[in-house]
Write a structure and sequence with these properties.
single chain, 534 residues, alpha+beta, Rossmann fold, 6-stranded mixed beta sheet, 14 helices, 22 strands, globular, disordered N terminus
Length: 534
């Protein structure tokens, strides 16, 4: 079931007209570039007072394509802007009514995917330059933990954090949404594994597939139900709705070692069978998932990713989510297909570059990858009439809530949004005005109702103060953008190395393992290494 976001829009009275340029001036299209700035910091604000509202059932779809962006709108489609490519413009004062406020509805990533940074890591450690087309900034923010605090109350599902710094007419804003940390008994799982055992999986792929299954087996408990299919030339159901007895269930662990690789890969037929099995065993009291494990190749049957992805999209409406697990190897791996499938199925896409990564994602981060804390999470940022988005690091945003597909949030999961807000004239910016963030979601326990929590930042309070989350978030984004760069990568990487060294010297970020890993990878990039010492 999808929940309409019209009710959320009523919180802000959306309907303000936006136009390009001050007094009709042009808004040239360009990339956001390093919109985060070198002097980022701010104050964190904890969760605010809760609010609730009812939603109406409707069928939402992700509309629109990227176009020349002007004042939060796309010229090609005036409803939605996706990705990082935006233009710098300003609000037409004549088109607005100054004390009105308006809202942007934002998506970090429909599927909470995390594959891009791990694939890039494997390529960098192999001495390769990652393909810029596989670098998705929001996945880097999903994978590396910015480190927001969970809700203070055990009864609260999510906490909302916001921090920003103002420089003249520009405001750098970072929003963090953090789900509760999984403790105690979790919801039961109904998992249908679709295991690629085609010939291309014979080396690293099959080994990582087995490592992933072993990690999952250790985390399962009585009450979970597992089905297992393999597929190459044909699908073979090895387990059908098997009720596990507890961790390391013999029926599951026994089949892991027997997996062999041979033949081609009819992915479309395999997914069709998997969803049939999942729907037959659907349990409304459980989290129901199809887990596709593959090297991303589909060379038999229907190979069009959009057709294959349609199966995932249809199943999500029935609360059967798709989780995709890429196994590599890095060279020849089809990242595009796996990303497309999981985006349609609105489940996490992860990539395994080693057996250790399999243990990390399906051991330490098991709940984050396979469970659900809140469905249909919607983020709305309300700003004064004179501010518009000039740069955005996320999957998409729009002034129309129905154009942004809400995403699911797992226990312990974070959603992080970074954006540059700007005004045509610094004199328009009033310190008493507020930037407000409202997050609403559908609770698993009350699927027909929506809960919400809000937080507000007075513009007068925006000042550099060395905020840890904002500083780390900025470094993560700049790392992704350096990997995306088709020119000038060396200078970006050298500057980022110096920045991270400085951050690791701060008391609040000293010893941060993730920043340390990013710094290591920056120095392995061929564009950095080839110029070292010059």
């Amino acid at each position: 079931m999808r929940v309409s976001l019209r009710a959320v829009g009523l919180l802000f009275g959306v309907g303000v007209a936006l136009a390009a340029g001050c007094s009709g001036s042009q808004a040239a299209s360009d990339s956001m570039g390093d919109a985060s700035g070198a002097n980022e910091a701010g104050d964190s604000f904890g969760p605010g007072a809760g609010a609730s509202g009812a939603g109406e059932a409707t069928g939402l779809s992700r509309g629109g394509v990227p176009g020349t962006h002007r004042s939060g709108l796309s010229v090609d489609n005036p409803d939605v802007v996706k990705g990082m490519q935006v233009a710098r413009g300003c609000v037409d004062v004549a088109a607005l009514n100054p004390p009105d406020r308006h809202a942007y509805y934002e998506s970090a990533d429909d599927s909470n995917s995390m594959g891009s940074p791990v694939l890039a890591r494997q390529q960098l450690r192999a001495g390769l330059v990652p393909d810029p087309g596989t670098i998705r900034t929001y996945e880097f923010l999903n994978y590396y933990h910015v480190g927001y605090a969970p809700p203070a109350s055990a009864a609260q599902v999510v906490a909302v954090h916001a921090a920003a710094v103002r420089t003249g007419a520009t405001i750098e804003l970072q929003v963090g949404v953090r789900a509760f940390q999984a403790v105690g008994q979790r919801l039961p799982l109904a998992l249908t594994f679709v295991l690629d055992n085609s010939g291309s999986m014979a080396t690293e792929g099959l080994a990582r597939e087995r490592a992933m299954l072993r990690a999952v087996a250790r985390k399962l408990v009585a009450g979970d139900v597992v089905s297992v299919l393999t597929w190459s030339l044909t699908e073979s159901v090895l387990l059908r709705r098997h009720a596990v007895t507890g961790p390391d269930d013999p029926a599951l662990t026994g089949l892991i070692e027997g997996l062999r690789a041979s033949g081609g890969s009819d992915l479309h037929a395999a997914l069709q069978t998997a969803y049939e099995v999942a729907r037959e065993g659907f349990d409304p009291r459980s989290v129901n998932r199809v887990v596709l494990v593959s090297d991303g190749g589909a060379n038999l049957g229907v190979t069009d990713g959009s057709v294959i992805g349609a199966e995932a999209g249809k199943a999500d409406s029935a609360e059967v989510y798709l989780t995709g697990v890429g196994t590599g190897p890095a060279q020849g791996y089809s990242d595009r297909l796996m990303n497309q499938l999981t985006d349609a199925g609105r489940g996490a896409y992860v990539y395994l570059d080693s057996d250790e990564e399999a243990d990390r994602m399906f051991g330490d981060r098991f709940d984050e990858v396979l469970s659900v804390a809140a469905r249909s999470v919607q983020v709305a940022v309300e700003v004064p009439w004179y501010l518009s988005i000039a740069g955005f690091d996320g999957e998409g945003y729009s002034p129309n809530p129905e154009d942004i597909e809400p995403q699911h949030l797992a226990p312990g999961g974070e959603m992080v949004f970074r954006q540059e807000l700007s005004s045509c004239d610094e004199a328009q910016v009033q310190g008493s005005d507020l930037i407000s963030v409202t997050v609403s979601w559908e609770s698993k326990a009350t699927p027909t109702n929506r809960e919400a929590v809000s937080v507000s930042l007075p513009i007068s309070d925006l000042r550099p103060s060395g905020g840890r989350e904002l500083a780390k978030g900025g470094a993560i984004v700049r790392y992704a953008k350096a990997l995306q760069a088709t020119s000038g990568a060396h200078d970006l990487l050298v500057a980022l190395h110096a920045e991270i060294e400085g951050l690791l010297g701060r008391p609040d970020l000293a010893g941060d393992v993730e920043l340390g890993e990013i710094d290591e990878l920056v120095q392995k990039h061929p564009a950095y290494a080839s110029s070292a010492g010059k």
